[in-house]
Design the sequence.
């Protein structure tokens, strides 16, 4: 069965992507650690499209053994993943000296390693079929240093570099990889990342708007999408100024008095 695999599907971008793929008659495999959130989403999807299959898989993607079990699940159920959307991830704003190192390591496992694993997991079948779409969610944070949110910025830099690299490698096999780099948008991320200070200073997009833009870009085969004119301008400006200045400005956007 052809199917679209979406991680972090219980909320935010993952939830919005699930609705978009459902409208276009894609069968769905929704993956998240939040069982209640997934079940609520499935109820909504059934209202959108009753003619598709919707499977759920509840697991902690930061654990490699859980990733391997997910892979086995797709094999045993003979699922051909035609679209992969990697939305799972989280951030945490804190001083480096005060950080919970276990939480930071879990962040790298989820934001980086799970995405790496899942990209590799789907490539064999996509290569054989000479088609497939992958969306990897990075961030404009991946373009710059992020004092007081250093691990998150580093993980999104990893996603950006990995995705752009495999985009080049996989294009000859008919596989299209979109690296999505939104700025801040409205989701549960703010609460989990303790980053309300940054969000009070801007007018963020909604997750729905970001997902719609990315969905259209993926269908068109685009390689990189930075959402919003201000965010595109920010990334462009980063090329013009010294890294020391960029780091200072970034720090002041994260923490009062930085």
Sequence:
């Amino acid at each position: 069965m052809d199917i679209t695999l979406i991680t972090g599907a219980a909320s935010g971008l993952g939830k919005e992507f699930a609705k978009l793929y459902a409208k276009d008659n894609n069968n769905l495999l929704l993956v998240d650690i939040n069982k209640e959130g997934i079940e609520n989403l499935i109820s909504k999807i059934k209202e959108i499209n009753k003619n598709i299959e919707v499977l759920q898989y509840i697991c902690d993607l930061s654990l490699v053994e859980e990733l391997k079990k997910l892979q086995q699940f797709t094999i045993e159920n003979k699922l051909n993943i035609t679209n992969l959307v990697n939305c799972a991830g989280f951030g945490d704003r804190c001083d480096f000296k005060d950080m919970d190192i276990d939480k930071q390591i879990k962040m790298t496992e989820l934001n980086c390693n799970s995405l790496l694993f899942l990209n590799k997991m789907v490539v064999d079948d996509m290569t054989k079929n000479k088609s497939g779409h992958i969306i990897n969610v990075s961030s404009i944070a991946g373009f710059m240093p992020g004092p007081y949110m250093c691990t998150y910025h580093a993980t999104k830099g990893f996603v950006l570099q990995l995705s752009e690299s495999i985009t080049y490698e996989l294009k000859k096999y008919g596989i299209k990889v979109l690296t999505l780099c939104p700025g801040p948008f409205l989701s549960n991320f703010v609460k989990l990342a303790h980053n309300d200070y940054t969000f009070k200073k801007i007018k963020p997009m909604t997750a729905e708007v970001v997902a719609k833009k990315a969905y259209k870009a993926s269908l068109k085969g685009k390689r990189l999408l930075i959402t919003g004119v201000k965010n595109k301008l920010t990334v462009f400006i980063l090329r013009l100024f010294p890294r020391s200045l960029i780091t200072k400005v970034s720090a002041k956007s994260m923490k009062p008095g930085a």
About this structure: The chain is about 50% helix and 15% strand. The beta strands are 2-7, 28-32, 54-58, 80-86, 132-137, 175-181, 185-186, 205-206, 224-226. Confidence is low (pLDDT under 50) at residues 190-194.
